Amino acid sequence: MTPRATYLDHAATTPMLPEAVAAMADAMTRTGNASSLHTAGRRARRDVEEARERIAAAVGARPSEVVFTTGGTESDNLAVKGLFWARHAADPRRVRVLVSAIEHHAVLDAAAWLTEHEGAELELLDVDAEGRVRPETLRAALAREPEHVALVSVMWANNEVGTVNPIRELAATAHEFGVPLHTDAVQAVGVLPVDFQASGADALTLTGHKLGGPYGAGVLLLGREVVLTPLLHGGGQERDVRSGTLDTPAVIGLATAVEIAVGDAPRRAAALARLRDDLLSKVLAAVPDATLNGDRGTGVVEGGPSRLPGNVHLSFPGCEGDSLLMLLDAHGIECSTGSACTAGVAQPSHVLLAMGADEATARGSLRFSLGHTTTAEDVDAVAAVIGQVVERARRAGQHASVVGP
Amino acid sequence: MRVLAAMSGGVDSAVAAARSVEAGHDVVGVHLALSETPAALRAGSRGCCSREDAADARRAADVLDIPFYVWDFAARFTADVVDDFVSAYAEGRTPNPCLRCNEKIKFAALLDRALALGFDAVCTGHYARLTSGELRRAIDADKDQSYVLSVLTQEQLQHAMFPIGDTPKPAVRAEAAERGLRVADKPDSHDICFIPSGDTRAFLGERLGARPGAIVDDATGMELARHDGVHGFTVGQRKGLGVAAPAADGRPRYVLGIEPVSGTVRVGPADALDVRSIEAERPVWSAGRPPADRFACVAQVRAHGGLAAAVVESGPDGLRVELDEPLRGVAPGQAVALYRPDDEGDVVLGSATITQTI
């Protein structure tokens, strides 16, 4: 017997919005390379440019600041490597790459690669116990030899624990020292108020599949005056910083999803916060010693909530996240131990470790991420089983955690 | 029953899981990540710990339509199997890491966790049979793995399933192909999974460093050569001794004994390797206790081969195994597995760790 699936892993990927599916399916029936000069090409170009304008309008950017990519990983790599290469070429003293300790691996590993191969010096910015980069931390790092800094990258909202960073203040701080700031906002767009120009960020990553759009379609918002060295060379389709024939149907699907998600964000954020608070209180009622990781979610950061409204990240003492995940999966509840990993092996989360958690706590944690399809029934499904699941995982956890003969 | 299928990514465990599903059990596949630094691809036919192997196991689970997870047992494996392996060699013993892995990981750490999570049994692709609680040799004599399972207690055996022990390996491969499992023609894994190079001496050398000592003639006590550490030697070894001068009688020399404290390796002629009596400690009895204080059986001292009829005396401190005919290449640290001969396939009575040979 397979119970109805309770999908609570929207931070990993979201179900596509029917409107986005319909728009893409329609576009897939048409031929046309957006770079071609004939009628079919012009039609595709018009679709792409309309999509660009719709996205720009939704996130407070100019159309020329929208660079289409294949998603979050490409946008992060393009921003981190591209900014480093361009700034380092302009002034070889610029080798320092300041990156928060809680970044996604698409930023962390890109920066680490620059360190290994391109002479960069990676410096991780500490976060506080809630997982937030404090502006004074950035200021202190910048103040040491600011002329040696190539770029700063701090994510808008953390994918694991949901803590929101004060991007406007961080960008202003970076600009005081003449340094550009990139922000990975894949978890924020469509949930939090994101305005590119108001934020002051020089580059911003967003991706389709985290907001009800297609996989393999994303954007790097890039300020008009920001110079960046490309990753991919070829036809120079996107502002000469990104080559490759544009995936017109995906771009249309992406624009449709961004427009709907952003338009719906205030209402959805409020609804998600209610469901999240309900889920949290029910889990804590069943498992009183569970602890919420990250910001409490009661504060305000730059006019928006201080925590992603759909994120519940908990540690369950004495449990292995692996065991919890499997037992919940058996009850049809789909969630995550954190960021998915290619090897499939749960590593203790670098985010929790950066927040000061010990390894056992990091291993015993679970993320429920709510999204546009989440209902009160989903919350109740978790509430109904979490007590027995944790109890069972705890019995198994004691065996797993003991090393020795 | 709720069955946890340990899936290495090889053909045997994939077919074992498939049979378990077909038998009507509620099966969940788990791949054990045993290496702290897994390689991306399998090196030759060695090992079972690469990401490619994990992907093969995942794909087999997909085909069987069962849930699949990767569990990280790397820290435990390192502590209980790899470190144990290294320290055994450092002490002049010859360990069997597969046996140790079954004893400490698959049917201990993994089984305990499975039981705690509500499973009834752990299913593996070992070639051995379980019939009414008795562990028997596999049908396929070349593949028989009952030796490396002889350390299991009755309680462990009660929660174990070996669904392919009744089938010859070629038939297992054919069945995998029929079931659409792409691991059907994947090469067999050999040797020691955590030494992908296959060079055990180099692996041990890296971990233990140079610990020089002497190679001496067992009969005369004369030093014949120097060596870099006793971990490079195992009883019965002939090659790689580095002794230039031939023996007086012109016959090849073999390692007869290793003295880890002084670092001395004793060598001598082949017939000096003959062992007629074995002392062993820490016995594990498959039925929970020995069949009698003194009993006749078949003793086996290696994973494959090394069999002799024997009489066993079981005492409070361990066993004495008197062999009817001499065996060679018997080293402290190895397990001696004891079997009751049976026309349907010998039955494992138990095993113990060899401490001394005479």
Describe this structure in words.
- Chain B: One of its GO terms (molecular function) is tRNA-uridine 2-sulfurtransferase activity.
- Chain B: ATP binds at residues 6-13, 32, 125.
- The complex is a heterodimer of chains A (405) and B (358).
- Chain A is α/β, with parallel strands linked by helices.
- Chain A is built from twelve helices and 14 strands.
- Chain A is globular.
- Among the domains of chain B are: 2-125 and 163-185, HUPs (Rossmann fold, 3-Layer(aba) Sandwich), CATH 3.40.50; 210-272, SH3 type barrels (Roll), CATH 2.30.30.
- Chain B has helices at 11-22, 51-64, 74-90, 97-116, 146-149, 154-158, 169-178, 200-208; strands at residues 2-6, 26-33, 68-72, 121-123, 128-131, 134-137, 160-161, 213-217, 223-227, 254-259, 264-268, 275-285, 294-300, 307-315, 318-327, 335-340, 347-357.
- Chain B has a six-stranded antiparallel beta barrel. Chain B has a five-stranded parallel sheet with strand order 3-2-1-4-7, with helices on both faces.
- The model of chain B has no long low-confidence stretch (mean pLDDT 91).
- At the A-B interface, helix 9 and helix 12 of A face strand 2, helix 2, strand 3, helix 3 and helix 4 of B.
